[in-house]
Amino acid sequence: MHRLLLLLCLLLLSGWVVAGEGADGPTVVRIGVTLDQIVGIDQKAENFSAVYTLRVRYREPALAYEPTPGAPPFRMLTFAKTMERLQAQGVVWPGMFLANQQGRHDLSRQGIRLYPDGEVHYIERATAVFQAPDFDFRDFPFDSQSFYIRAESLLPDSLFVFELLPEHIGVGDQLGEEEWQVFDSAAVVDTVTGADGLGYSRFSLGFQANRHLLYYVVRIFVPMLIILVVSWSTFRLKDYMKRIDIGITVLLLLIAFNFTLGNDLPRLGYLTAVDAFIAGTFVITGAVILVNVQLRIWQHQKREREAERLDRLARIGYWPAYLVGMSTALLLL
To answer: Quick check: 100 and 150 in contact, CB under 8 A?
Structure first.
């Protein structure tokens, strides 16, 4: 008798496991995310805030119902009401979370359509902040950055597996971000291993963006080019003291310029392209000041011939030296 009861318990337990995992394997959950708007990109914090729309579709036979003649082909349910019905039927919702989300997210719309055959269509529109740890500013401001929105299943892939919902994946045309332009996007589904050693499905929507260069050309490169030309033009002056004064003024201007640019980026452990450009300008400007100081010394010592030779060499070698130095610095980045 005891053995019969034990066998019955084992059969019931195995029935619960099969019901949990599905007789035909894990339940397929189709998922799609569209990026509707980029609210902002914080380069120092290495994150971005965005408005997105998440859509989830799967079939749950326990929620099937008999359609009413003349009624709409589906029923609209709230998320809370759907959870109550699932709990009453003893089945679980294919829960997921945004794996790279920071803080909370603000829901603006949420709803569920339930069809007679148990087909569930879930939609969610919200605003959230997402981590972007893959930022690499070495080519700034000519860099392209990668951004991701990742949704990861709360339940192992023995219960639910993700598949793409292609018709609801992509990036909107009016993102509202003026500094960046999105030029590519793609979505993938893969499996990640959790701390418990089990596999979990993960959906990732990634998009690539680069900067609008006109802003940086007008605000950085044109002013820097003017500074270089001003520094070089001092060679036309015969008064070496005025050359030194102008060179020191240009150097102070560069220092202020450097501090202004530093406010836009985090404190990095490597140089960016614009850092190399500014550093090269620092070096050439400092070299011009040193040359003019030496010329002033030789003028005071009545060594006019040596001064004239050095002056001519510096004037001719200014641009080639700068271009060679810049090219070397950029190659070493």
So the answer is: yes
Question: What is the number of structural domains in the chain?
Answer: 2
State the distance between the two ends of the chain, measured CA to CA, in whole angstroms. 79
DSSP state of 217: I
For residue 314, give its domain range.
Answer: 215-332
Q: Is the pTM of this model over 0.85?
A: no
Tell me the per-residue pLDDT of 127-179, one tens digit each, with 9 for 90 and over.
999 999 888 988 888 999 999 999 999 999 999 999 999 999 999 877 877 78
Q: What is the CATH number of the domain that holds 304?
A: 1.20.58.390
H-helix segments, 263-332: 273-300, 304-332
Q: How far apart are CA 138 and CA 210, in angstroms?
A: 13
**CA dist list (Å): 149 to 49, 88, 176, 194, 256:** 10, 33, 18, 19, 38
Q: Which residues, given as ranges, of the chain have pLDDT below 70?
A: 1-24, 264, 333
